């Protein structure tokens, strides 16, 4: 499914003859061309938002999404905006030859043979929809893989193979779960990630409770037990935190920032901002741009 204007990347560009895996963590940009490759690539969105162009399809991406990209598939990631002040789109990439699955067959085992299923899943996926890492397992494995890959020492080869097997088995489990009707409610962590990505929208307890397959009352209890705050208080703090990033990094008008983070009423924005941050947006921008106060994104809210 390589397109006419897709650039071909060969495995030799990433792996020496005696190497079997390449791992990196990169900030996506608008310079990398649409490309396809003759190897298997696992791409995991670690931070930010943007888009993934896969063949003729464009998928909106955010933290926690994993893409399986077999040989011959044209694709490229793009950030949501070219602005240098916007949070970057960060993606982990794990590249390896298809033949590696044969080498790992004895390591993986299983009945029926997991390696056989993985080979089919990784080289001929039925669709290119992403998997969601709702428990953070894939994130942790990519982090460990990158650390071991970048800090080669005695035993690193065995560690990398072991971590790759764990990653492949975890992906197989996600694929198995994704193919079955789910009876498991969405986790609270999944909801928090969703809120992070959609804080500017008109979110309600009812909408999120429905996503979790819970009653609104039960959702409220679980949410507060998990975060220490009510849904509305958490949402307000999330929006104010995002507004602080924009106040610090842009010259947008305060009314425009209020609307961008989800406030239709400027007075409501000003009230919540002063309650949470302790000063007006104008004062915060003046002080923080003079570097007299720390980045608000690094400061824990008091939950009041």
From TrEMBL:
InterPro entries documented for this protein: AraC-bd, Homeodomain-like_sf, HTH-like, HTH_AraC, HTH_AraC-typ_CS, RmlC-like_jellyroll, Tscrpt_reg_AraC-type_HTH
**GO function term, MF aspect, one:** sequence-specific DNA binding
Q: Record's PROSITE patterns?
A: HTH_ARAC_FAMILY_1, HTH_ARAC_FAMILY_2
User: Could you tell me the keywords of this UniProt record?
Assistant: DNA-binding, Transcription, Transcription regulation
**Could you tell me the superkingdom of the organism this chain comes from?**
Bacteria
- SUPFAM superfamilies in alphabetical order: Homeodomain-like, Regulatory protein AraC
What residues does the HTH araC/xylS-type domain cover?
189-287
PANTHER family (alphabetical): ARAC-FAMILY TRANSCRIPTIONAL REGULATOR, HTH-TYPE TRANSCRIPTIONAL ACTIVATOR RHAS
Full protein name: AraC family L-rhamnose operon transcriptional activator RhaR
